[in-house]
Amino acid sequence: MSLLETRNLRKVYKTRFGGASVEALKDVSFTVEPGEYVAIMGESGSGKTTLLNILAALDKATEGTVILDGMDLTGVRDKNVAGFRRDNLGFVFQEFNLLDTFSLEDNIYLPLVLAGKKHAEMKGRLDPIAADLGISDILKKYPYEVSGGQKQRAAVARALITHPKIILADEPTGALDSKSSDELLALFKKVNHAGQTILMVTHSVKAASHASRVLFIRDGVIFHQIYRGQSTDRQMYQAISDTLTVLARGGGRSCGDRTGNAGSGNAGSSHVSTGNAGSGHAALGGDRR
Predict the structure, then answer these.
(1) Is 56 within 8 Å of 89 (Cβ atoms)?
(2) What are the φ and ψ backbone dihedral angles of 36, each rounded to 5 degrees?
(3) DSSP at 138
(4) pTM value?
(5) Model pLDDT for residues 87-115, shown as the tens digit of each residue
(6) Which pLDDT score is estimated for 271?
C-alpha cells in the first residue's frame, strides 16, 4: 500500500475581486511508497509549491484527494489540522525556521512540547538523533551562533524527532553553501536508507540527483518522471539536466503518455540508462506506481 497518494488534484485561485481564475494544478495524480525518496522539480510558477502546500495541509485542493497512510487529508477538520501536521509530517525549510530566542535543543524539542511530551521522553528521542546528525556538542547554542549547515542539521533533527510518516522538504539546500549542501544531501540519503520517506521540492539538479525518483511538473501537470534504479548520482544528474532542457524548449508530453525518452525530447516515465554515464539518455521504463 502506498504511503502517500494524490488523486486528480486541481487547485484554482481566484483574483481578489473574483475576476480571472488561475489554475495552479490540473489533475495531478501520483503515489509515494514507504521508504521512498522523491524529488519534485519544475520552473517557478509550475505549481510545485502549491502542491507541497496541499500535501502539508497548509492549503486545500479545489478538487481531488490526498491520502496519507490511509487517511484522507480532506477529512481532517480545521481545528485538528495543526495536530495532524505535528503527528504525521516533518518539515525542512529553506530558511530553517528556527526561533533565535530558543537554543537549538529547545527548537528541536518544540513540536514535542506542543504535543505534551515529558522531558525524559524528549531527551531520549533527541540524544540518538543529535549523535547521528553530529550536533550533540552544539545543542545549547542559539541559531545565530552556528553556521547555516548546522542550522539545517538542527532543522532536520526537529523534523525527525516526531517520528513522522513523511518528511516534506522545501528547497532544503537553497540557503546553504556548496559544502553544507553536500553534507545535507549525504544526511538525507543516510536518513532515507534508515527507512525515512522523503519528498523534496527543489530547483537544484544536484539535490534532485540524490533522490530515488524525480517528478517533473510543468503548468500544473506532472509530465515526466525518472527512476533511479541502479544508476549513480552522476547518471541521474545528467538525465535530470536533459529533461530540464526538454522542458525549457517546450518539448515533452504529459506523464500519462508514458512513452517518452528523456534524452530524445519526449517526456514520459523512464529509468536512467546505466550503459553510459555521460550520455544522460533515459531508457523507456514502465509505470511503476
Answers:
(1) yes
(2) -85, 155
(3) G
(4) 0.84
(5) 899 999 888 889 999 999 999 999 999 98
(6) 59
